[in-house]
Write a structure and sequence with these properties.
The chain has 228 residues and is an alpha+beta fold. The protein contains ten helices and seven strands.
Amino acid sequence: MKLEKITKHSDSSRRRYEDACGTAHALDLIGERWALLIVRELMFGPKRFSDLRGDLPGISANVLTQRLEGLEEFGIVQRRKLPPPASVQVYELTPWGLEARPIIESMGRWAIRSPHHDPTMPISAVGLMSSFLTMFSSERAADMDARIGVRFGPESFLVRIGRGGIGVTRKEFDTADVIFEGTPAGLGAAVYGGQSFDALAADGALSVTGNRALAERFLTLFPLPPKA
């Protein structure tokens, strides 16, 4: 039986691999520069255009608009308007778009072994939270039951650890066993860079309240694999 040729995407300026392999088509969908990072930034919930620009400081407004339009046309991202009093437009992943989470985590777990990876480079709040899901060691947290609150300015996350698993939700929280407040780079330096809480507090990069011993143990739950 002769296969019918599917109509190509209307934007002829986009390059396609012209390859039936699913991996090639995945690159057609999210292989453009910035596209995959936009998907990453929406993994924990919807964001406004301005929020996305702020979390991806290297992207221009024009490129962000183009990528969002492409992701929306492919069915990966959708727009909606928040109800009053907010009444603002946000972008969010479709249910199918959310299925990309294990792909992003697997890529991160693989790429972190590169000798060229530099963990001291800037990272967004979502990027850091995603890294926790990616690098989490269930063995090290086997008997741990904790609620860890994280605040980066106006953005808050609640990390739940229990039964050897981890969950991260972008939400406000009233209480937690440990609360980290500061910058993504500050918390990242404590977790992946081995910097002390006191040194980071002196620099204004991170403050810690709550169970200090639990906070210290939290840092050990995300071991980096050996370099390739």
